[in-house]
Structures are given as structure tokens and as C-alpha cells.
Design brief:
With 122 residues, the chain is mainly β. It is built from no helices and 11 strands. Strands 2, 4, 5, 6, 9, 10 and 11 form a 7-stranded mixed β-sheet that branches. Strands 1-3-8-7 form a 4-stranded antiparallel β-sheet, with no helix packed on it.
């Protein structure tokens, strides 16, 4: 599996930005595609994910400002980030867990995309 991310850069406080990630070479029966982020000096954290069998998740810390959507045809995911704050500044990473099972639970292969920098400043 390969991941191709797009988006990122500099944005003013209160602005919006959209990150996209397209996967190629998926062969598993199920997958979870996600966006993680890592701020300087902090651990990498989940931001949002989508599951090939349906459910999506947006973590509480960004809920109401961030939204995740998908295009199953490609497949790809899009992270719409609104009302951005300085604390959203981080390197954002696309991630996929691909499984031969009907849902991703115990057996999966994981791939990380190259990170993209998002900088929010006034």
C-alpha cells in the first residue's frame, strides 16, 4: 500500500485547511484510514479516522472544528480543518491499517505516509 498526502502549509488563526490522502495498492478486505498529528515535543496522536465498513471517528479535542470524509472509489480521505488554532500546529500524518479480515482488529498491516506540516499562526 502507498499513501499520497496533499495539503498543508501555513494558515492564519481562525482559518481553514483541507488535507487529503489517497491510498493505492489496497488488497485487504478491510481498512482504517486515519490522520494523526505530532506537535513539537509531544507524542503522535490520532485526529480522525474512517473505517471501510462504515464508522468514522473524530477525537474530542477537535470535534466541532474538524471533519473527516472519504471517497471509497479511490480510496481517499479528506480532513477538513476549520477555525484553526495555534495548538493545531503539527506535522500531520496519514495512516492506513489494512486487514485480510472483514474488520480491522487483530491482524493488519500498517503504513504511514510522509508527514505534512500544518502551521497556524496569527
Amino acid at each position: 500500500v502507498q499513501l499520497q498526502a496533499s495539503g498543508g502549509g501555513f494558515v492564519r488563526v481562525g482559518g481553514s485547511m483541507r488535507l487529503s490522502c489517497e491510498a493505492s495498492g489496497i488488497t485487504g478486505a478491510s481498512y482504517i484510514m486515519a490522520w494523526y498529528r505530532q506537535a513539537p515535543g509531544k507524542e503522535r496522536e490520532l485526529v480522525a479516522n474512517v473505517r471501510s465498513w462504515g464508522p468514522t471517528t473524530v477525537v474530542d479535542s477537535v470535534k466541532g472544528r474538524f471533519d473527516i470524509s472519504r471517497d471509497n472509489d479511490k480510496p481517499s480521505i479528506h480532513l477538513q480543518m476549520n477555525d484553526l488554532k495555534p495548538e493545531d500546529t503539527a506535522v500531520y500524518y496519514c495512516n492506513i491499517r489494512e486487514s485480510p479480515d472483514s474488520v480491522v482488529r487483530y491482524r493488519y498491516h500498517e503504513v504511514w505516509g510522509q508527514g505534512t506540516q500544518v502551521t497556524v499562526s496569527s
